[in-house]
Structure formats: C-alpha cells, structure tokens
Backbone:
C-alpha cells in the first residue's frame, strides 16, 4: 500500500505488533520507511486470509586469507548485509518466481530473481527441496553496505544470505553446518562463507569432493549454478550437497586488535583474481606460507599482541605477488608500513582477492589509514577507509512476527526447535557413540532406552549395581569462552565413573543429557564426541542420551550437560569402602591429578578475572598454553588403572577428590574412629594450582577444601600388602605415592602436616 492512497484515516505505525493490536485495522498507513510500508501491506494480506512471513537476516562481511591463509582463513567484520523478507505482498503484476527484489546500498546488482546472487542461491536450495519458486508475493529487500568486488566478501555474505533465505521461506530448519554445505556448492573457497556464517576469526577446509562436484568451480556464477541449479527452471532437481563438506574452527582474537580497511574506488572480481594464480607452486613458497599461517592463528589471539610475530606471520608468497598486476602499486603499498615506522601497526595484507588492503593495528588508526591512502594516491587511485572490528555473531535471523504464524499451522521449527538439526546431530555422532561398544552393550543410538546384558558383560550371578549422576559445573563457562567443547564431555564421564570406581564398581554404561536453547549441531557433536572419548577411557558404553532444545532457557550458544553412569560389583565381592577392615597404621596412597579437574571453578574464574587475564592470554603457569586451554585440561579417569587392584582385593577404601577437596572427601571413606594423617610434601602440587593459590591468596585450609591439591584419588591399603598394591597400580600405569597413614581420630577426619610446603 502506498502513502498516496491516503483518504480517510491516516496512521503511522511503528511496528508490526502495533498494527496487529488494532482491533479494526486502519485503512491507510503512513510508513516510517519502505519497509514499514511492506509490513503494512503484509498486514492487509493477513486480513484477507493469507499468512505472511516477515523476517530479517544479517550477515557480516569478511576478509579472507589474512596474508598466508589463502582459501583457509576468514575474519568476519562489522559491516552487515541485511535482508528483509516479507511474503503475501499484493501485486498487480506477476513477478518471476513470485519474487520482487529491491536494493539499497553499495553498487548495483541484478534485480531479477534468477540472476541475483542472493535469490539465485535461494532458488537452488528451494529446488533441492522440490520447491520451484518463492511463496506468493515474496518481496526481498536487500540493504547492502558491503562494497562489491573489493575483497570484503560481498559474494560470500550474499551466498550465506541466499541459503538462509531459502531455509526460512520454505521452513527447512537448516542448521548452520548444513547451510555451510549448500554455500560450499556455490562458493568453493570456504574462507569467506565460513566466517560470514559462524562469525569471528575462522579457519576452514573443504573436504575432497568427487570429480564431478570438483568440476563445478566457483564464480562466475553462470558456471556454478547452471540450470536447473540457479538459472531458468527446467523442473529438474539440482545436485543436493553431500553432508559435512566443510569443517571450520574458531580461533581466538585479541580484543585490542582492530582492522583498518583501505577500500580503493575500483572493483576486482574474485574470479579474475583467481585466474592470475599459477596452477602449481614452488615447494619453498608453500612451506613459507604454512610456517607463517601456523603461528599467525595463535599470535592474533594473544594479549598483548606481538607485532613482530604478526607482521612476519602475515607475509604471503602464494597469492599476493601474483595479484599485483590487478592492483597498481600493491607490492610497494604492502611494504610501505612496518611496526617500527608506524606505531600501533601489527600487520598488513591484501583483503581477500583485493583490491582492499587490510591493516591490523592497536592504535594510530587514522595515521596508518592516511599513509596507505597516500600510497594509493601515488598510483592515481582514491580510497575510502573504515575501522572495522570482528563480528562474532555470523548469520542471524530475526522474525518480526511470531504472532502471524500462530494464526495458521504452526510448526515446531517456528517455535525454535529443529527436528532436522536433531537428526543431523544423531548422524554426526553415530560412529563416535558406536566406538564405545563393550560386551553386553551395543552402544547403538535410536532406541527408547539403553540396554545392558549383564551376563554378556561377565556378571552371570546377580551383581550389586551402583549408579552415579553428576554435571560439569562452571568449567563449562570456560568452554563457552574458548568455544571449545571437545573435552568437557570427558570431564562429565570422569565425574561419574570415578565416583563409581571408588565403590569398587566397574562402570558399564553411561547416558548423557545436553540442554540448550538453540541446537548447534557442531557444538553438540563436539561435546558428545568428548563424552564418547571419556566412555572409551572408562571402558563403559554410551548407551543413550537426551538432547533437549528449549528456546529461551539458556543464553545464546550456552548449554548445560549432565550424565549418569551405571556400574556393577560381582556377587561375593566387597562394596567399598570396607570401613570395618580399616586399622590404625593402614597406608594412604595418592594418585596424581591432572590440574584443577572439574571442581572449584567459580573460585578459579574469580581469580583469573581479578588478575585481568583473558582466557586467550598465555597461562602464567604454562607458557605453552593459553589460560583457557590449560584450565580445560580434562579430568583424569582412574577406572582402568584401579580395576586390577580392586579385583585383587588390594584396596580397603578410596576417595575421589572433588568439590570439598581433601578435607571433605577423605573422611567419607573412613570409619568414625580413624583419621587420615597426611604429609602434604609427599606429592607435587601442579603448577596451575600453585599459581591459583598464590594469585588468589588462598589460605592452606581453603586450598585443601576447594581443590584437589594435586591428588585425584586417595586410597587406603592394608600396611602388609601396601607394596603389592603399589606394584599393581604401577603396572597399570599409575605413579602411586605414599602420602600418610590412618591414625586414631581426635577431632578432624584429616590431619595435614607440612602445609607450609604449599606457601
Ligand atoms: N548483496 C548482493 N546482492 C546480489 N549480488 C551480490 C551481492 N553481493 C555481492 N553480489 C555479487 O557478487 C559479486 C562480487 O563478488 P566477488 O567478485 O567475489 O567480490 P567480493 O570480494 O566482494 O566477494 C558482485 O559483483 C555481485 O554480482
Ligand atoms: N581465498 C579467496 C578469497 C576471496 O575473497 P573475496 O572477498 O575477494 O571474494 C581468494 O583469495 O581468492
């Protein structure tokens, strides 16, 4: 509807909701902008019995390569392509594929649905799902501030937007990983699309495809998406992408590093810039790039950033030298700045295929920009410049109107729960889960419950079953900060099976629970693969689990996880601890921990915060790791080293040192009349715990009741067979340490000697 049609009631609407709230519905609207006019028109079509879709997508631009990472690295940056979509628009003229396109922003693009990169991509995805056109009355409004053909990933953003557009209009519920598969059928270098889709500083690779797929190289688009993929409709179904074509990982990025983009006033098409590249490379040049890229991805995550490492790390011999013919003065411009001459500068490179130049810096942004603009000017080229920051969100989709859908057949996907994503997750974890198979438990997922055949597991007479349930705790927060979910699953298993083994039980099965607001298949799969790894370390089968997608329950990508283990003790064997058999003089053995394990992380986080450290900083206690990576070291699983000693009846009791530390856990295995008399100088305190104690000024008492102090397990063994127990544990790979003995109890259940050793 148009403002000129106004004749009776004239109303300004601010939102879609405001319109819907009006019981009568105004006959004429004055829209705040074109988009408001479209909303109004869609609102009218509702009153005529149609149900429009209204949503907005945002996709960031990206800078690919960052010097040596040709076709591998991409950095999402803070200029966003926006797509506003509405269906059910009333039109006098029919439009091809039911789609009308309007455009505002940089450059000009083809507005025909089968020629515009965004809608052409969407049509390809729709056709893969047997849909020949957009829903009736589709209007795609593109707001594009990303300069075209300048090396800032305008096409990568357009392709991501196109796939996501199809997913939304046809309610396909594609996960981000599946969206990537579709994107990679179109733009074959994964660097831009992976960054635009996932956000942040991203490394990616493309799996090797079959020869037919490989033949369909990227841009020009006509070659990539011939009919029936993206051109005229032939009624055929185009090739559907295989699953999991590309892999990505997010690298850390130091927050003080900003990006200066110097954008010349001419275009270089990526296709042209790839044609000038050689088909074979000199071995020395390839090694030159590999050496730099390996260091660069870590160097850009360290605070404070090291200018020497970054400047050298951003040099390239694989694409920039060959592109100098397309970008006048390129070599001289890249050489015209150094961290020594230009304070604040960290490194410089061609952005993507150019002609934009990307300079990374921590300060003096305008001085650096003016210098580079001056260099281009010598070549007669004028430039624009922008100071950009990493865009961490990647693709986002916002629905303007949930209510509109409520009037018609609502779907679970509308409510934020994707069955397809759930199915995809099951596919991606199947083999990891199956690898945990053990006698008596197949570890095949898909059943309503997990089964265990006790006889096949070696328990022919009724055993005593022991069960445990636990979570990971706030260690998860560090996994979120590091975007690394590969090891917290091991922690989850460890917390459960270590509790079972101290009772003398052999862990047989495990089940996990994963709750999130929006299922991210890649994250959930990394987590569950960690759970499977933990199960293998413990020798138990992962027989099932639950993934709960609960929109609104958690913040963003956060999730919670819990798990439960079942173990068994053979008929006739002891359930530990055997308190009655314990005597004064019995020996206490300690088994080493692997750092903080999974307890006391609220205090850990507080200390790290108080010291102004970021998770990406070099760990003050271990220069080879970041703070986050070091703290994420998974909890040790003691099942396999302990089982032989348990089976030989060499152990009277065990304490798993978790929350509550030595002070709280050791008395749990002792009779009331005995106490543990312990010499704390008999085991080494891991460097991380030493640092935390000192940095947090944590008292000895607090230290002993918060963290494990270096012992993950404490065992009671009879004095006469202590050496045999030590030998058996050593043969199983442990380094048991004599840490004390049982004494008659006075007050405390644990008496610590030599605590000054901790200070
Ligand atoms: N928002 C958009 N809408 C439609 N087409 C687009 C859009 N963004 C990019 N394109 C297409 O992609 C081309 C640029 O792609 P490319 O040569 O790879 O450069 P870039 O470095 O910007 O990605 C444009 O000329 C245009 O055809
Ligand atoms: N790795 C590609 C990246 C192209 O990026 P664009 O932003 O220029 O499209 C290449 O260097 O060719």
Residues:
């Amino acid at each position: 509807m148009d403002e000129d049609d106004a004749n009776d009631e004239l109303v300004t609407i601010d939102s879609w909701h405001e319109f819907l709230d009006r019981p009568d519905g105004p006959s004429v609207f004055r829209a705040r902008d074109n988009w408001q006019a479209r909303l109004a028109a869609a609102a009218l079509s509702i009153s005529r019995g149609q149900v429009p879709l209204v949503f907005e997508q945002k996709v960031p631009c990206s800078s690919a390569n960052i010097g040596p990472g040709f076709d591998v690295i991409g950095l999402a940056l803070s200029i966003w392509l926006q797509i506003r979509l509405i269906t059910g628009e009333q039109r006098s003229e029919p439009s091809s594929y039911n789609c009308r396109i309007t455009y505002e922003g940089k450059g000009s693009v083809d507005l025909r649905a089968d020629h515009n990169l965004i809608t052409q991509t969407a049509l390809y995805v729709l056709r893969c799902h047997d849909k020949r056109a957009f829903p009736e009355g589709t209007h795609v409004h593109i707001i594009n501030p990303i300069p075209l053909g300048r090396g800032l990933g305008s096409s990568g953003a357009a392709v991501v937007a196109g796939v996501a557009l199809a997913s939304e209009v046809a309610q396909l519920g594609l996960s981000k990983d599946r969206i990537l598969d579709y994107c990679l059928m179109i733009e074959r270098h994964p660097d831009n699309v992976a960054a635009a889709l996932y956000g942040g500083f991203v490394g990616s690779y493309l799996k090797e495809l079959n020869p037919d797929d490989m033949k369909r190289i990227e841009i020009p688009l006509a070659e990539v998406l011939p009919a029936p993929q993206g051109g005229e409709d032939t009624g055929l179904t185009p090739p559907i992408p295989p699953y999991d074509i590309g892999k990505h990982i997010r690298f850390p990025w130091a927050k003080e590093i900003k990006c200066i983009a110097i954008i010349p006033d001419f275009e270089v098409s990526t296709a042209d810039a790839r044609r000038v590249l050689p088909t074979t490379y000199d071995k020395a040049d390839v090694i030159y790039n590999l050496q730099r890229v390996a260091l660069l991805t870590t160097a850009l995550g360290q605070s404070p950033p090291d200018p020497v490492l970054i400047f050298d790390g951003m040099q390239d011999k694989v694409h920039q030298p060959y592109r100098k013919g397309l970008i006048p003065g390129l070599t001289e411009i890249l050489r015209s700045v150094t961290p020594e001459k230009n304070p604040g500068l960290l490194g410089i490179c061609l952005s993507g295929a150019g002609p934009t130049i990307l300079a990374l810096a921590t300060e003096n942004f305008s001085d650096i920009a003016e210098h580079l603009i001056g260099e281009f000017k010598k070549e007669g080229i004028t430039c624009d410049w922008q100071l950009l920051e990493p865009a961490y969100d990647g693709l986002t989709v916002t629905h303007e109107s949930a209510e509109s859908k409520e009037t018609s057949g609502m779907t679970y996907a509308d409510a934020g729960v994707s069955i397809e994503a759930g199915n995809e997750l099951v596919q991606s974890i199947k083999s990891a889960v199956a690898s945990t198979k053990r006698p008596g438990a197949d570890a095949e997922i898909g059943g309503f419950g997990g089964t265990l055949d006790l006889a096949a597991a070696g328990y022919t007479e009724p055993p005593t079953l022991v069960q445990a349930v636990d979570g990971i705790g706030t260690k998860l927060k560090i996994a979120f900060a590091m975007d690394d979910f590969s090891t917290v699953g091991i922690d989850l298993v460890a917390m459960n099976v270590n509790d079972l083994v101290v009772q003398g039980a052999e862990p047989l099965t495990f089940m996990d629970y994963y709750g999130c607001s929006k299922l991210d298949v890649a994250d959930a799969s990394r987590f569950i693969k960690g759970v499977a790894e933990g199960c293998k370390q413990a020798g138990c089968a992962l027989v099932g689990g639950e993934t709960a997608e609960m929109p609104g329950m958690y913040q963003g990508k956060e999730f919670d996880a819990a798990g439960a283990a079942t173990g068994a003790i053979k008929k006739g064997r002891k359930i530990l601890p055997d308190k009655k058999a314990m005597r004064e003089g019995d020996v206490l053995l300690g088994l080493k921990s692997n750092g903080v394990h999974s307890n006391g992380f609220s205090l850990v986080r507080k200390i790290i915060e108080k010291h102004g450290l970021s998770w990406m900083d070099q760990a003050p206690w271990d220069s080879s790791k970041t703070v986050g990576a070091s703290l994420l070291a998974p909890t040790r699983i003691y099942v396999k080293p302990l089982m032989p000693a348990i089976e030989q009846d060499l152990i009277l009791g065990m304490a798993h040192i978790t929350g509550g530390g030595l002070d709280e856990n050791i008395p749990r295995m002792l009779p009331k009349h005995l106490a543990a008399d312990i010499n704390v100088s008999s085991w080494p305190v891991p460097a991380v715990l030493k640092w935390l104690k000192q940095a947090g000024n944590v008292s000895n008492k607090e230290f002993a009741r918060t963290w494990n102090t270096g012992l993950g397990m404490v065992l009671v063994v009879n004095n006469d067979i202590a050496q045999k127990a030590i030998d058996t544990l050593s043969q199983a790979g442990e380094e048991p340490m004599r840490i004390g003995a049982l004494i008659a109890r006075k007050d405390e259940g644990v008496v610590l000697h030599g605590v000054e050793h901790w200070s």
User: Anything to note?
Assistant: The pocket of adenosine-5'-diphosphate (ligand 1) is lined by residues 81, 109, 116-118, 142, 144, 148-156, 158, 219, 269-270, 352-353 (CB under 6 Å). The radius of gyration is 31 Å. The domain at 54-252+392-397 is CATH 3.30.230.10 (Ribosomal Protein S5; domain 2).
